[in-house]
């Protein structure tokens, strides 16, 4: 009888379409979806940059300069040459406030070392800035670039950044809408933006928005509150 019941079970499983069969959990006890998210975060998080800015100004009643911490944001490694992409508003904080210059320092996951970055390009109307660090000073892992034109509302996305100074924080969600318009740092609206319900907070600015495969599909720029 046991053999007959086992044979009946085998026949029923074989007749069940693969899409309807239950998916086993991974060896670590995670679901298949959770395992993919963990693996993707592990793969792409080394490409996420923690960006800290400070302002250099002349000290009152002195000829010496002083450095004043100004802000923090996120960015990501674009290529192996040392280019780091972030938001323009992340690195533009001290302009127009009496600062002589802005110092930008970059650190990557797994290291305490901060490297001074040079500003090599800006597009304020798109709220984009490009930094450059010496590639010999850090191990660089560029992100794979996806295609935002093929996005669909409802597909899974993830954001990695440094909200409130909590470095390398992962949040997940979906594409909530496409073709949104947000105000750019230069005053003009940025068209064709992606709306997501993945949590984005202060400090996430400049960090990557990724698809479920870990491919770059956008830059986290603004929150609505």
Spell out the blueprint of helices and strands.
Blueprint: H1 2-15, H2 32-44, E1 48-58, E2 65-77, E3 83-86, H3 88-91, E4 101-108, E5 115-123, E6 128-132, E7 156-161, E8 169-183, E9 189-196, E10 208-211, E11 216-219
Antiparallel strand pairs: 1-2, 1-4, 2-3, 3-6, 4-5, 5-6, 7-8, 7-10, 8-9, 10-11
Q: Overall pLDDT, averaged?
A: 85
Number of helices: 3
Query: What's the order of the H and E elements?
Result: HHEEEHEEEEEEEE
Q: Which residue ranges are poorly predicted, with pLDDT under 50 across at least 5 consecutive positions?
A: none
Can you summarize the main beta sheet?
6 strands, antiparallel, barrel
By oligomeric state, this entry counts as single chain
CATH architecture descriptor of the largest domain: Beta Barrel
Give the helix/strand class: mainly beta
CATH homologous superfamily placement of the largest domain: Trypsin-like serine proteases
What is the domain tally?
Answer: 2
User: What would the principal axes of the Cα set say about the shape?
Assistant: globular
> Rg, please?
23 Å
* Topology-level CATH name of the largest domain: Thrombin, subunit H
The level of helicity is: 10-25%
Strand content: 35-45%
CATH class of the largest domain: Mainly Beta
């Amino acid at each position: 009888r046991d053999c007959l019941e086992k044979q009946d079970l085998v026949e029923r499983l074989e007749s069940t379409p693969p899409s309807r069969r239950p998916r086993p959990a991974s060896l670590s006890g995670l679901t298949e979806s959770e395992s993919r998210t963990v693996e993707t975060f592990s793969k792409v998080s080394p490409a996420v940059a923690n960006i800290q800015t400070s302002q250099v100004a002349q000290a009152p009643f002195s000829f010496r300069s002083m450095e004043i911490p100004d802000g923090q944001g996120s960015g990501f490694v674009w290529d192996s040459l040392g280019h780091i992409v972030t938001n323009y508003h992340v690195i533009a904080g001290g302009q127009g406030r009496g600062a002589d210059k802005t110092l930008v320092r970059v650190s990557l996951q797994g290291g305490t070392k901060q490297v001074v970055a040079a500003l090599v390009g800006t597009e304020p109307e798109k709220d984009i800035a490009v930094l450059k660090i010496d590639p010999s000073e850090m191990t660089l892992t560029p992100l794979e670039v996806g295609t935002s034109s093929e996005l669909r509302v409802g597909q899974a996305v993830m954001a990695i950044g440094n909200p409130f100074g909590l470095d390398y924080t992962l949040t997940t969600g979906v594409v909530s809408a496409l073709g949104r318009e947000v105000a750019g740092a230069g005053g003009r609206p940025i068209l064709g933006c992606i709306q997501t319900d993945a949590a984005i907070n202060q400090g996430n600015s400049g960090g990557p928005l990724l698809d479920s495969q870990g491919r770059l599909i956008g830059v986290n720029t603004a929150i609505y509150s």
